Amino acid sequence: MAADTGRLTGTPPAVRVRDLYRDFGPGRTVLRGLDLDVAPGEFVALIGRSGTGKSTLLRALAGLDRDVAGHGEVTVPDSVSVVFQDSRLLPWKRILPNVVFGSRAPDAVVRGERALAEVGLAGRERAWPHELSGGEQQRASLARSLVRQPELLLADEPFGALDALTRIRMHALLRRLCETHRPAVLLVTHDVDEAIVLADRVILLDDGVVHTDVRVELPHRSPADPAFAELRAYLLDRLGVHDEDVPAGRRAAA
Ligand SMILES: Nc1ncnc2c1ncn2[C@@H]1O[C@H](COP(=O)(O)OP(=O)(O)OP(=O)(O)O)[C@@H](O)[C@H]1O
């Protein structure tokens, strides 16, 4: 089922973070000497209470935070893609140009078309972003990340704005894409079920460090599986959420 993990052994990690600090002024230290390894091809979900620094960590790994403190160590692969909650498609560009935007590969267009087909958007290459649904826009955003052939995919609540049914479809799509392309993945989510359904490992950030680190080893990734429910209860407990705090019917979300 689930077990506390130790350090990864064998192949060098895709992500290596050591003693990372980030503060936003006196008394506002968010990351406090954080250590983290993510193996190549490993899918890690990052959960934690609001304001614990999940996005801060992701931004540091994405190279989007120039002010991250000078001490500590962050090593990531050369090829990193980031997917956010909003698709961040450029509204003045059609979908295919959006997907290949910034790519200097000579076969970028072919790659873009292939990526769009992989996410189920073949035939929508010439659509404008506003002509796509929210779920389709996130698919296009995933296609854009694939074009870069990332060794590391960073995703900050990419499905947070989608309805429940679309989320389930996106989970299946993301799992399929990850099985095909095998990037290391760090997914920030508030949804404990999403974390368990998708990830090889779930880590919980608290007080600026990795507070809990569990490997997901379930026979079935179904919320109906008792082992799934047990892991969910364990993680919710670690988050300080107790069953009576969660409204009936919403027992999946933290
Ligand atoms: N640019 C900034 N300037 C000042 N404070 C910041 C900045 N960015 C983040 N913070 C603070 O750092 C803390 C962590 O923010 P962060 O967005 O990383 O949390 P989070 O865990 O992703 O939260 P949530 O789950 O609510 O999205 C928060 O208290 C936030 O106010």
UniProtKB/TrEMBL annotation:
Enumerate the InterPro entries for this protein: AAA+_ATPase (IPR003593), ABC_transporter-like_ATP-bd (IPR003439), ABC_transporter-like_CS (IPR017871), ABC_transporter_ATP-bind (IPR050166), P-loop_NTPase (IPR027417)
List the SMART domains. AAA
The record's section on Pfam families has: ABC_tran
**SUPFAM superfamilies from the UniProt entry:** P-loop containing nucleoside triphosphate hydrolases
Q: Which UniProt keywords apply?
A: ATP-binding, Cell membrane, Membrane, Nucleotide-binding, Translocase, Transport
User: One MF term in GO for this entry?
Assistant: ATP binding
Name the Gene3D superfamilies for this protein: P-loop containing nucleotide triphosphate hydrolases (3.40.50.300)
Domain (ABC transporter) ranges? 15-232
Protein name per its UniProtKB record: Aliphatic sulfonates import ATP-binding protein SsuB 1
State the gene name recorded for this protein: ssuB1
